[in-house]
Amino acid sequence: MDFDDLLAGDGRVEPRDEMPDGYRRTLVRQIAQHAHSEIIGMQPEGNWISRAPSLRRKAILMAKVQDEAGHGLYLYAAAETLGVDREDLLDQLHTGRQKYSSIFNYPTLTWADVGAIGWLVDGAAIVNQVPLCRCSYGPYARAMVRVCKEESFHQRQGFEILHTLSHGTPAQRAMAQDAVDRYWWPSLMMFGPPDDDSPNSAQSMAWGIKRFSNDDLRQRFVDMTVPQAEALGLTLPDPEIRWNEERGHYDFGTVDFTELFEVIKGNGPCNQQRLAHRVGAHEDGAWVREAASAYAAKQAVREGAA
Amino acid sequence: MRDWPLWEVFVRSRRGLSHVHVGSLHAPDAEMALRNARDVYTRRQEGVSLWVVPAAEIVASDPGERDAFFDPADDKVYRHPTFYNVPEGVEHL
Questions:
Q1: How many CB atoms lie within 10 A of CB B36?
Q2: Which chain B residues are within 8 Å of A73, Cβ to Cβ?
Q3: Number of folded domains that form chain B
Q4: Is B44 inside any structural domain?
Q5: Is A80 an interface residue toward B (CB < 8 Å)?
Q6: If you write DSSP's letter for every residue of A91-144 in order, what string do you get?
Q7: Which of A28, A159, A195, B91 has the fewest beta carbons under 10 Å from its own?
């Protein structure tokens, strides 16, 4: 079936179908960046596994970090259906030629940050990702269905951490508020630049890769999150947030996108640390991959001889 | 990892259902593929049985030839029960 007819009928494109080069390139870039984000996203939370305040919290956090690894693998597998090699994608991450989500270049300074990441960062990710379950490229859409199912546990565990802290001692409450204060604006930046400054959006919408604009998704996230903040008894660090009866949405302040662009350029608080850690982990794991290959080769020879 | 073959993963979610394709992964051999598939695709009791199949061993129909390949079925509507007229009042047919 012709590519344009498929899209016009809201059909799904599958790996061996003919597709325009630009469509393939855009998907490879987006899926790879998404996969990299999942893998790098293990670091800020992994930072707290050894210091989680209870065995219950530790077990939950390990399950969550393991999920992030799984999400990365679903996505690398989806990217490979487009004819790229996973090893090449990792090379491009390690050499800075492909990006990951800027949110992971912020540090997790306190235990409450783990809660803020679950509630705000995973909450924003869900708003971004739910429409991707209907993306025109079949393997990406199917991977996103799995990811979204698992993300809702992530968001709830984050909310629960903050709820516990915000109903705890004054010091715990202050820690929770501080984490929300630091993660609120970067979470809003996760939706990307404003619509009038987002050069690739229109083409991605026409291709059915993107279903809603950056600003629409950002608004959806704000509308969802403001009442949740009230339930937590925490404030969001934006004095301009108020319900707008006429629009049927919450108004909110202007996001400082110069910060986003600076972090993308590499000037965020943790860019170098995250990448160095990732490259180190990959290099330190080389002997495991080599051993597995050597074992497989030896077994294959033995089976051939038998 | 570059020379590790690609494996397609199929999961039977519970007894009585068939195995369904869920994704793929790279592994040096079948045993590692199976173990990795368990960790990647069945972390939440999604399966009671797993298949891993070397992707290179799968023979697929050509999407470009889809019409020619499948259209012999198009003009055989008499294969469906709705093709037949049933007289008024006849039941259990």
A1: 17
A2: 25, 40
A3: 1
A4: yes
A5: yes
A6: HHHHTTSS---GGGGS---SHHHHHHIIIIIHHHHHHHHGGGGG-SBHHHHHHH
A7: B91
Note the pTM of the prediction, 2 decimals.
0.93
Between CA A275 and CA B30 the distance in angstroms is 32
**B59 touches A at CB < 8 Å:** no
Query: Residue B57 is part of a domain; what is its CATH number?
Result: 3.10.20.520
ipTM (interface predicted TM) = 0.85
Radius of gyration in angstroms for the set of CA atoms belonging to chain A, rounded to a whole number: 21
User: Mind telling me how many Å the CA of B73 is from chain A's nearest CA?
Assistant: 17
| pLDDT average, residue stretch A121-142 | 96
* Backbone region of residue A83 per phi and psi (left: phi > 0; alpha: psi in -120 to 50; beta: other values): left
A126: contact with B, CB 8 A cutoff: no
Q: Residue B89 falls within a domain, yes or no?
A: no
Residue B71 structural domain: 6-79
Residue B84 included in any domain? no
Q: Mark yes or no for CB contact A293/B66 under 8 Å.
A: no
Mean pLDDT throughout A294-305? 88
